[in-house]
């Protein structure tokens, strides 16, 4: 067999693998969505039940605001991006969720602070002194505007965004956290990550808002990049506001899944900016590094938490394998590959996807388990709970389906002579 | 062999087992104390490091106020009750811990609210909107008064106690929790438990304070008893203030270790009151019931959390085995046996003690591991952390050593004809 024939056969085999994965992603997305549309809609009060047992039964009717906002976002996003989800059942449920949020999320309107969890009929149960309920509220409202065209949703989104930016960059006192003399001025990576995600959400195909938030987006990227510490050898979850390592467990805390999620947020941002050096840095520090240190060599899967000095974390769940870091890793590696063409990233995508589909999927009742022990055994049988809703799994499946489709639609190239090994699918800028 | 001879031989064998356990408890207590005196004293600032790795190395220098108060209490208590611990090293360390608390625990003196965690040099890092830092502060101050005779410690204890009682029974607004329309008026069992423990602490050999808090003690006992729900078939961790089951996960939440700890608090209280019917009820509902439902039939050990409907709890660590429920169970069963003479309780004590000494002890570096996975494998190698300090293990060992000593000092009885099986050691009232 000639060398040229061999290369073509390898490429065809690789395309076949991509096609198979695209099909699996699509089928799984349908199954996962069916689980949520069947079990989570509260027909009486609007909004969504998210405390769902293995078979979908509601085991608690509390409504967690993060998950309400995320499900509205997810439904609208699928409705908008996928023809097969462009149907009124999904849109109506999203609108009912949006109306529930509009009516009940804020603890003391017209104040913008939102609750963390509400009763089934919308009375506040708990408030967090963070920005996250408000961020998911904003994502929901912006997507609702995109699919309905109703300006009131967009006004809500933009006003809430302004409030969040004010809390983060000007004055956090409205969040209600006490100022304590010993509390370090720590920045959790979650804050600039979440804001960058909002900048990208609001700026999508919207030149005015993209311009308005351009400086904010760059600020977020810079702040996230400050979490790369120790001469580039570790991504730390908390750093000081001027980008220094903090002392103790707080400073050494690592969250590989978060680093990978930040990685694809940053990569998407830098693809838009067209900065190849930055993109290589992001792939190195936010994709490869967290995977190398965070993947369990013994049992597979990503650890939930780690300590940068390899000391024992104090979180009881540190060695557990959670669904969302694996969802984020799949997105990150496929996006990294789409951007760079580096086959190492494609094979990491396969490695994570194989582990994830094997360990987290529930072939019997649909959706994924969320919480495995270190060895990969299901530790909690719930499908939804206070922190797991209709979001990470379908977002991952939808984005992977789209990215795999885009890869398959690229024209087959001649093998690139300079590549480490012939990339099965060539690099392309701005794959998404 | 005559029946009488057989009974005497069985009794001697049982006494031999009790002697062996007493010796193990004493030796282990010495070893555990040595670990803390060697590794945890902050010679510079006073107080204690509690974030200690497997070998005792300090991995974080934050000072958790619960654990500062508990260690002061533990040191004083041992100094006061055990001749071999009646030495100035322990007393000086306790006083240094007490002075650290006096100087730094309160967030905004003269206000009484205490921090949850302080920097090494005493600046507040976090405040919890609960009563527990203040409760351990009170325990520490009362014991310091008992061993030093210095009245300023007792004034601190009594003033703080009054503040706590005010927060619990009159007006919780000083704790800083927001009033939210959807938040159920739930009573965590921890609150009356902790208060009952304080009543017993302050009232020990102190007729004036015992009288002053007598009504409070009865109120606490009544409130704890309200957590027995479902026709006596379950102890629920949270109930409404008028003693009804709450809806959802919050209402179904169970914590077997907490029920067992409440059990021996209640038992101690009711032994003082001399109410045999109540004591039998406590043994049945707070000792036997939580053990029966909370002991893992597959791998041994007590589950950390459970759901009263046998649904999957939402806490990631629900199936883990923690050191403190096992410490509390050992105390509870030995106290129950000392009071009732029921050999079932003695054998449960042996069962828990054997599991605990086998699984939690670290023969290499001393002290106990705190956190095992469901199967009993060490999940966290730390010996101390934000919630584990010098308290549950030595309190358990000290109390068991004392109770075993008291059992061995009882005169050997003639077999009681009415007992289910001849109790190896007879029932005695007020064993402690």
TrEMBL record, chains A, B:
Pfam families named among the record's database cross-references: GlcNAc_2-epim (PF07221)
Enzyme class name: isomerase
Protein's GO biological process: carbohydrate metabolic process; N-acetylneuraminate catabolic process
Enzyme Commission designation: 5.1.3.8
Substrates-to-products reaction catalysed: an N-acyl-D-glucosamine = an N-acyl-D-mannosamine
Keyword rRNA processing on entry: no
Key word Signal present: no
GO MF assignments: identical protein binding; N-acylglucosamine 2-epimerase activity; peptidase inhibitor activity
Protein keywords: Isomerase
Pathway given in the UniProt record: Amino-sugar metabolism; N-acetylneuraminate degradation
InterPro entries associated with the record: 6-hairpin_glycosidase_sf, 6hp_glycosidase-like_sf, AGE/CE, AGE_dom
Protein family (similarity comment): Belongs to the N-acylglucosamine 2-epimerase family.
Assembly: Homodimer. Forms a heterodimer with renin and inhibits its activity.
Protein known as: N-acylglucosamine 2-epimerase
């Amino acid at each position: 067999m000639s060398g040229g024939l061999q290369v073509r056969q390898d490429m065809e085999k690789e395309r076949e693998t991509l096609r198979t994965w695209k099909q699996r992603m699509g089928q799984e997305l349908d199954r996962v969505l069916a689980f949520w549309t069947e079990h989570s809609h509260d027909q009486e009060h609007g909004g969504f039940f998210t405390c769902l047992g293995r078979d979908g039964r509601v085991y608690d009717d509390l409504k967690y605001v993060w998950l309400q906002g995320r499900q509205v976002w997810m439904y609208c996003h699928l409705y908008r991006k996928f023809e097969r989800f462009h149907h009124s059942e999904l849109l109506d449920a999203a609108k009912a969720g949006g109306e529930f949020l509009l009516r009940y999320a804020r603890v003391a309107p017209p104040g913008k602070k939102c609750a963390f969890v509400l009763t089934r009929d919308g009375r506040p149960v708990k408030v967090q002194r963070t920005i996250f309920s408000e961020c998911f509220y904003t994502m929901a409202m912006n997507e609702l505007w995109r699919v309905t065209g109703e300006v009131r949703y967009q006004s809500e989104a933009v006003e809430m965004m302004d409030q969040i930016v004010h809390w983060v960059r000007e004055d956090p006192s409205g969040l209600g956290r006490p100022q304590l003399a010993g509390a370090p001025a720590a920045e959790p990576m979650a804050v600039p990550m979440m804001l960058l995600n909002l900048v990208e959400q609001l700026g999508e195909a919207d030149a005015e808002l993209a311009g308005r938030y351009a400086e904010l987006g760059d600020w977020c990227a810079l702040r996230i990049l400050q979490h790369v510490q120790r001469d580039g050898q570790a991504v730390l979850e908390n750093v000081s506001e001027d980008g220094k390592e903090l002392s103790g467990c707080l400073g050494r805390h690592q969250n590989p899944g978060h680093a990978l999620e930040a990685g694809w947020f940053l990569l998407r941002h830098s693809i838009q900016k067209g900065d190849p050096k930055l993109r290589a840095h992001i792939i190195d520090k936010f994709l490869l590094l967290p995977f190398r240190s965070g993947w369990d060599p013994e049992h597979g899967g990503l650890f939930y938490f780690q300590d940068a000095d390899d000391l024992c974390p104090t979180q009881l769940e540190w060695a557990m394998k959670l669904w969302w870091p694996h969802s984020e890793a799949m997105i990150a590696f496929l996006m990294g590959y789409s951007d760079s063409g580096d086959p190492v990233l494609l094979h990491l995508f396969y490695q994570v996807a194989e582990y994830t589909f094997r360990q987290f999927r529930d072939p019997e009742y649909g959706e994924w388990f969320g919480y495995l022990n270190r060895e990969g055994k299901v530790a909690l049988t719930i499908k939804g709970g206070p922190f797991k809703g209709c979001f990470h799994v379908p977002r991952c499946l939808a984005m992977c389906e789209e990215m795999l489709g885009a890869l398959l639609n690229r024209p087959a190239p001649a093998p690139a002579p300079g590549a480490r090994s012939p990339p099965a699918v060539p690099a392309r800028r701005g794959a998404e």
